């Protein structure tokens, strides 16, 4: 078990998880993924456990940060070193995401502070996704030459309209109201309420998951936690959302240029800063995911991430991948000047994109073949 994951079981049958890696904003490493998987499987199969809750520790103590994603520095080092643990990480992380999405007991995620990438992966499948005024939620992977994984294609594609394309391609950071409006959160709570809520989990009297769920709903209702955005909150300009309904990236760019509003210009500026190749790949990912089961979408993601770190179809080594370059620019050299190849959205061709969606494994040997 990982020392970065604190586990406890309350007398009334609630499994409580605290991520304890605040200096890295609780970014997940392989040991943490394994500790979470082991605990969730054990509690799933334990009839005396009625619910599970998860939180992160921030720099000032419990709450304040949930999880900033996967450990991208490890990704960079492992890719350059040919470390097999990189393959294990994504296989086991995606299996963990599936476990959470299919969990048979109430799973409560306190999404306070930063909730990005892998943090979304260990929260979006939950029964109760709690956000606060401090929540900073995003799937920002196109900024590092990657794609919204951890079932991102699945949950983004199920946002209303074409919000999922907007979030996945731009990596936009959103708060509690947008999360509620777009189906990425269930309740908004004042951050100051969270310690009291954590304590309440150990006091609710319930002898089954269903009874616990009812008691928890009653507690949230009594606390006045919102289930809808504040009246009048408009998460996304209509012309921006309309642009992301275009059939391809060129159409999205043209629509944003034609709109001519400040919101459209800002969105286009952001889009042009992202990895051009992965912007095209992500649009395909989200569009394909709309018609997929969770398990099939995760298998597609596992294919995609293999190609991201082994872009053989582009004639490149792992060290030459867009992902290694994106992480270098953001987190290693920190020059924030990634040298994308191709450098422009207009230079990406279908021949560069389509091979990402060809599985490198036969079905019988796929790393996620047993996920159903």
From TrEMBL:
EC number of the protein: 4.2.1.149
Enzyme class: lyase
Domain of life: Bacteria
Keyword annotations: Hydrolase, Lyase
Residue ranges of domain Enoyl-CoA hydratase/isomerase in the record: 14-357
PANTHER family: 3-HYDROXYISOBUTYRYL-COA HYDROLASE (PTHR43176:SF6), 3-HYDROXYISOBUTYRYL-COA HYDROLASE-RELATED (PTHR43176)
Annotated protein name in UniProt: Carnitinyl-CoA dehydratase
Originating organism: Tepidimonas aquatica
Lineage: Bacteria, Pseudomonadati, Pseudomonadota, Betaproteobacteria, Burkholderiales
């Amino acid at each position: 078990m990982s020392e970065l994951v604190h586990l406890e079981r309350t007398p009334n049958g609630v499994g409580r998880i605290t991520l304890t890696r605040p200096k890295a904003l609780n970014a997940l490493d392989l040991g943490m993924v394994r500790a979470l998987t082991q605990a969730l499987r054990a509690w799933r199969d334990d009839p005396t456990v009625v619910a599970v809750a998860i939180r992160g520790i921030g720099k000032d103590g419990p709450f304040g940060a949930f999880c900033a994603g996967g450990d991208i520095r490890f990704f960079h080092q492992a890719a350059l070193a040919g470390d097999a643990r990189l393959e294990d990480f994504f296989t086991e992380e995606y299996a963990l995401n599936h476990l959470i999405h299919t969990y048979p007991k109430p799973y409560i995620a306190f999404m306070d502070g930063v909730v990005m990438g892998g943090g979304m992966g260990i929260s979006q499948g939950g029964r109760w996704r709690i956000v606060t005024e401090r929540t900073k939620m995003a799937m920002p992977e196109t900024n590092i030459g990657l794609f919204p994984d951890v079932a991102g294609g699945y949950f983004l594609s199920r946002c209303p309209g074409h919000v999922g394309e907007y979030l996945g391609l731009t990596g936009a950071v959103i708060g509690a109201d947008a999360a509620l409006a777009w189906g990425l959160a269930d309740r908004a709570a004042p951050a100051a309420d969270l310690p009291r809520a954590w304590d309440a989990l150990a006091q609710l009297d319930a002898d089954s998951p269903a009874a616990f769920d009812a008691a928890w709903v009653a507690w949230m209702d009594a606390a006045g936690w919102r289930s809808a955005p504040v009246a009048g909150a408009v998460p996304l300009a209509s012309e921006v959302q309309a642009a992301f309904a275009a059939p391809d990236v060129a159409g999205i760019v043209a629509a944003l240029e034609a709109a001519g509003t400040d919101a459209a210009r800002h969105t286009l500026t952001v889009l042009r800063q992202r990895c051009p190749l992965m912007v095209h790949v992500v649009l395909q990912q989200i569009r394909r995911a709309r018609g997929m089961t969770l398990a099939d979408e995760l298998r597609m993601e596992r294919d995609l991430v293999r190609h991201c770190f082994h872009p053989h179809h582009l004639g490149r080594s792992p060290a030459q991948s867009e992902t290694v370059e994106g992480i270098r620019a953001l987190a290693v050299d920190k020059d924030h000047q990634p040298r994308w190849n191709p450098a422009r959205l207009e230079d990406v061709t279908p021949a560069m994109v389509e091979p990402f969606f060809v599985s490198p494994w036969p079905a019988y040997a796929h790393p996620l073949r047993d996920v159903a």
